């Protein structure tokens, strides 16, 4: 969406951050006023009344944030959280602005990938900081372009924050849905006649690990939305309260989905162990039954192998009689065990 920086812009110390050019936008009354301007001009736009500014930085370094820190007067503690990886999802308030840290999940095959994003929120400015390019910024811009206007036009940067939070929670809900589909596939494996134990163990482990990771980043979003919706803090304008309430409802859906999936995965593991035990019992019954059947001819041949005279001793009829006894007893035991479902 932004214009390509010129050679003059690239030479400016604040125009190329972390190896990728920053993206900037300014709105006035819900309409795009400027786009792709240098970071050093952010404060110039903020001096104009009713102008809302957005700045996006991708993988910035500590020294890269000095320019924007001076532009917005950011606290060094908040800047440290913004550039540090693997911070917990949270919403902190400072004098004149607030700091948000959250995660955008994406299910790639059977793996859950988490993309960390931080944001500084002022009254008329939003600065988003991505740790990697995995977050689709263009999709976020489309959300803003489709919704800015009407009541949202006079709400400052709060509406930009709403669009960001709405995208984050929607991606978390999509990830929960993808994990739910994976749980259905694992369930099919559990009740498969072939009973692929190794594949079930591997996919169950991956599903449980991904679910724990999703819960760790999704559940704190409820507290983030609760803080934003507190009336005494007055962070969200009244016109945007229904918008943020809708995002809060989506966080509840994510929490319910993850809780349900956690119980489902636990039940699948218990069911797999129970079925595995039942199959072992079936195998033991079959082995025992076949051992009993084999014991009959062993006993008969051992008895007739004694070196003493018996009916049919040293005669062909004796061999025929012993063979008939072996076959009749073995077949009889087989039918009895089959009728009792031991074979």
TrEMBL record:
GO cellular component: plasma membrane
Basic and acidic residues bias: start-end ranges: 1-10
Subcellular location: Cell membrane
Membrane topology (UniProt): Multi-pass membrane protein
Annotated segments matching region Disordered: 1-23
Coiled coil: none
UniProt cross-references to SUPFAM superfamilies, sorted A to Z: CorA soluble domain-like, Magnesium transport protein CorA, transmembrane region
The keyword Transport belongs to this UniProt entry's keyword annotation: yes
GO terms assigned for molecular function: cobalt ion binding; cobalt ion transmembrane transporter activity; magnesium ion binding; magnesium ion transmembrane transporter activity
Spans traversing the lipid bilayer: 287-306, 318-337
Alphabetical keyword list: Cell membrane, Membrane, Transmembrane, Transmembrane helix, Transport
Family statement drawn from the similarity comment of this UniProt entry: Belongs to the CorA metal ion transporter (MIT) (TC 1.A.35) family.
Protein's UniProt name: Magnesium transporter
Organism: Actinomadura litoris
